[in-house]
Amino acid sequence: MSGPGRNDPCWCGSGRKYKKCHLSSDDAGTTQPTFGRASSASKANAHLILDAAARDKMRAACSFNAELMDFIRPYVQPGVQTEKLDQLVHEYTLDHGHTPATLGYHGFPKSCCTSINHVVCHGIPGAQVLEDGDIVNVDLTTIVDGWFGDQSETVLVGTVAPETRKLVTETMECMYKGIDAIVPGGRIIDIGRAIQSHAHASGYSVVRDYQGHGIGRSFHQDPGVPHFPDYEMGQFIVEPGMCFTIEPMINLGTYRTALDPKDGWTVRTADGKLSAQFEHTILMTESGPEILTLTTNGPQRGFRF
Predict the structure, then answer these.
(1) Fold annotation for 39-291
(2) Which of 268, 207, 256, 226 shows the shortest CA–CA distance to 37?
(3) Of 185, 263, 293, 294, which has the fewest beta carbons less than 10 angstroms from its beta carbon?
(4) pTM for the whole structure
(5) What value, to the nearest 5°, has the Cα angle with vertex 128 and ends 122 and 132?
(6) Longest distance between any two alpha carbons in the chain, whole Å
(7) Residue 304: which residues within 8 A CB-CB, separation 6 or more?
(8) Are 245 and 224 in contact (CB under 8 A)?
(9) Buried/exposed code over 207-217 (b: 16+ C-beta within 10 A; e: otherwise)
């Protein structure tokens, strides 16, 4: 279900009902953030505008990343250990002369992320075996000639329940709603507003604790790209030449998350219900957003799982 409902306690912790507190400001996109974000928009613009040569470098990096996603997807099957998926991703990347971006990033121990069922993001590949009916988000980031490509897909493992299939379908639709909402000279908040509107209409919630990000020669940089109408980062103006990810995490239950205190990476839904995610790297051009990480064999816009 979407959260919170009109008569539920507001997410801000005020103790008031949502309809009496943040409902109107959330809908209008004027809610102040409840957690820290990068907010130096003018500084970010100076180093995120890519010239023609840099745009081609980003296209090349993202093209390989999409190729890698097409390579690994068929291996996501019941009975496969996520450690095996990581091994395949690692070897394919190195064999092509590139670098797995996540390996060693702030201590992350693997070459990709595999987030299963109620894991929202940053799942660490290991001994866990995929089972029939699971969903798993495979998040890939590679460095090609010094430039970063980044994307993720939620993959159905075997035969999944109709409720699960619908969540995955609408999550991918949320991503495309966000992509379609942004234009040259538009504001980041338009992305979050479009995503949240579709998610709530479908009966789901939108994760607030994690967001998209600028990308280029660095993995994560300004601007932050919230997937709900966030006032602070939402005012950032998107100019041609900017590159960033849109990667909504959509939950079957509450939007709240919990970070694993032991490994410091794995993020789960607070209520143990399912979460799905899709991600593309986007280049804003003079005529509109260009999706850099489109795959050849994966689900395309409008696909129904």
Answers:
(1) Creatine Amidinohydrolase (3.90.230)
(2) 226
(3) 185
(4) 0.86
(5) 105
(6) 57
(7) 169
(8) no
(9) bbebbbbbbbe
Instruction: Please tell me the distance from the alpha carbon of residue 274 to that of residue 135, in angstroms, as a whole number.
Output: 9
Contact 199, 254 (CB under 8 A): no
State the 10-residue block means of pLDDT for the chain, 305 residues long. Answer: 50 53 52 33 54 98 98 98 98 98 97 98 98 98 98 98 98 98 96 98 97 95 94 90 98 98 97 98 98 97 94
Phi and psi torsions of 214, nearest 5°: -65, 155
What three-state secondary structure class fits 209?
coil
CA distances from 137 to 14, 69, 247 (A): 34, 11, 11
User: According to the model, what pLDDT value does residue 232 have?
Assistant: 81
Q: Give the full edge-to-edge strand order of the sheet including 280-285.
A: 221-225, 212-214, 243-246, 280-285, 288-291
pLDDT of residue 231: 84
